[in-house]
Amino acid sequence: MASGADWAEAALAAARAMAAKATWKRVMMRSLRLRSNGARHGGEHLLSRSVLSSLGESLFCVRLIDVVNCTDCCLMNKQSENKFTVDNLKTSLWCSCRAHFLSSTSQPSAYTRCMRWQTLLQQAFAGVLLCAGVQAHAQLAVDVGEAMKLAAEASGSVRGAQLDAQARGLQAEALDRLGGPSLSLTGFAGRVSTSINLDLSNVAAAANPSLGMLDAALPGAPIPTIPNAYTTDRIVNLVSAGLGSVWPIYTGGRVEALQGLARGRAREAQAEQQDAEDKLATLVAQRYFTVQLARQALALRSDAVIGIGAHQQSALKLEQAGLIARAERLRADVALDNARRDEARARSDLQLAEVALQRLLRTDAPVQATTPLFVHSQGVGPLASFIDTGMSRHPAWQKLAAKRDQADESYRLQGTELAPNVVALANVNLNRSNDKTVQPNWQVGVHMSLPLVSRIDHDKMRDAARLQQQRVEVSAEQAGRDIPTLVEAQWRALENARAQYVSGGSAVELATEHLRLQQVSFAQSQATSIDVTDAQLGLSRSKIERLQAAHDYVMALARLLEASGQPQRLPELAASADIRLPLQP
Fold first, then answer.
1. Which of 209, 452, 566, 569 sees the fewest Cβ atoms within 10 Å?
2. CA distances from 447 to 178, 250, 266, 423 (A)
3. Among 76-85, 286-295, 359-368, where is mean pLDDT lowest?
4. Are both 86 and 152 inside the same structural domain?
5. 152 and 52, same domain (yes or no)
């Protein structure tokens, strides 16, 4: 447990950091990235020295002595419980800031410092709570490449396409031995009726003369003669078991056509899987960089609140001095309220974007996007290279090739319906103790069947298969026009966004200078409050437009890569960009 001296030392370290006059954005980023060494005690989260020092650096708008005093006050109040919590520090710092503002209203920059405190308070404590683990889990730092991998593992559509491709691949493999022999165990139990015909002509020819002589020697004795043939009908109970084998010798191409159809379906499923993965990569890019856009927009809205708040305080002082009318100060109040509303809306948009990304990646911890928005000042390549790549790697071509194979095999199958079937047969009777008069011991032979009349109109089936072939060719011809058009449209959108971002720097510079001039003019009563707020909003608008251009550039690049069949190149191109917007905490 840290002692009061430790906390005071941490506060003084914060004071030294503030004396270096670091900008508040850089300080806030350092604050949010700190990792807490705090511990739990009695069910409450405690602040570590590093967290307190980070918080002290963020609150440079408060007098340094107030930071130290409020820290010591909190330590004395909680000394009996040996705990120092976030709520105590927040309350004490707020009271100190308010007292400092009330005692410094005569200083022109007092309200500016207080407005910064008011704007940064929630952000600073959000960072502290994040570091200390009070209200949120540790964020998961993810770049855009890792986000694509996580999304692919979590996506139901991609997983479903993978399972379908695996299933159809196994089905195709299962038909590889369709033209080979089969062996089966057969059995029969039942009653059998059979006619037995015996040829006794040879026996009769040899025995009947002797029987005639015997009949002459014994007159009156009933001596029959042997007939030339004997026929009898038998009904027996038969139980038999055996082995049977069938081996197709000639099927007219039916086996090969069925195997080709199965392979075509498997290739189509693989193309569907690739298409699902490409679409998911674009969706990940959209949600990922929407988070970055929302963070940048929130930072700009916060800057606008600070700037308009400082102007509102200046207007209040000028009104008190009788230099401007009350309406001018009220206009500044309205502008400040509008800026705060825009900031709240931007914060809500950021939260929604973060939730959407987290759910897409299906992570337990909030996602911290580490790949910033970027722009290639010299472009990413000529249009012709992307068109050539799209004409060879777009998933539509794989799908069309698979459908073409299926249509060809279907037409081939319909042309074999009237072809003969020839198979080799072999059977062995394993139950030789049964009645051999009604069942042979074995048989080997060839069986042939030739269809003569069918209930299916095969001519129409062949015509339908031919139409399917034509449909595939028409689709391929259309794709040959659509894919280059899509690639060119996305490439031009990419170039337009790049040009807009590059040219937007001068607009931001002009808006910054215009705001400075309006602030000076207002201080000299040569400009109205509306002029200053319009200039402030104009600066924010110029920055947001340039930020939106960077976002449009990234999204156009993601869609261009999808259209050319190479969406997985986005992380590589993001890393090679020469313009990378700074990350916001």
1. 452
2. 18, 11, 33, 5
3. 76-85
4. no
5. no
- For residue 567, the 8-state DSSP code is G
Give the C-alpha distances (Å, rounded to integers) separating 69 from 65, 89, 284, 370. 6, 11, 48, 37
Are 95 and 69 in contact, with CB atoms under 8 Å apart?
A: no
Q: Is residue 465 part of a domain?
A: no
**Domain contains 446:** no
The answer on 274 and 148 residing in a single domain is yes
Per-residue DSSP letter, 569: G
- Reported as a pLDDT band with limits 50, 70 and 90, residue 436 is low
- Parent domain of 99: 4-136
Whether 277 is covered by a domain: the verdict is yes
Q: Residue 369 maps to which CATH number?
A: 1.20.1600.10
Indicate the average pLDDT of the chain: 78
pLDDT of res. 388: 96
Nearest Cα to Cα of residue 118 among 24, 54, 22: 24
The Cα–Cα gap between 73 and 89 comes to: 9
For residue 543, give Cα distances in angstroms to 239, 286, 293, 501.
92, 21, 12, 10
Average pLDDT over residues 515-532: 88
Identify the pLDDT of residue 77. Answer: 39
Q: Domain check: are 163 and 277 in the same one?
A: yes
Q: Residue 2: pLDDT above 80?
A: no
Q: Is 487 exposed, middle or buried (0-12, 13-18, 19+ CB in 10 A)?
A: buried
In whole angstroms, give the CA distance from residue 89 to residue 359. Answer: 34
For 8-22, b/e burial (b = at least 16 CB within 10 A) is: bbbbbbbbebbeeee
What span, in angstroms and rounded, lies between the C-alpha atoms of 201 and 325?
143
- Measured N-to-C along each axis, helices 383-393 and 458-523 cross at an angle, to the nearest 10 degrees, of 150
What is the percent of the chain with per-residue pLDDT over 90, rounded to a whole number? 50
Q: What is the Cα gyration radius of the chain?
A: 44
Q: Count other C-beta atoms under 10 Å from residue 188's C-beta.
A: 13
Residue 60 pLDDT exceeds 90: no
Domain count, the chain: 2
Residue 452 falls inside a structural domain: no
Q: Which of 328, 346, 347 is nearest to 533 (CA)?
A: 328
CA distance 554 to 19: 39
Q: Which residue has the higher pLDDT, 213 or 395?
A: 395
Strands (E), 125-181: 140-142
Q: How large is the average pLDDT for residues 26-43?
A: 36
148 and 295 fall within a common domain: yes
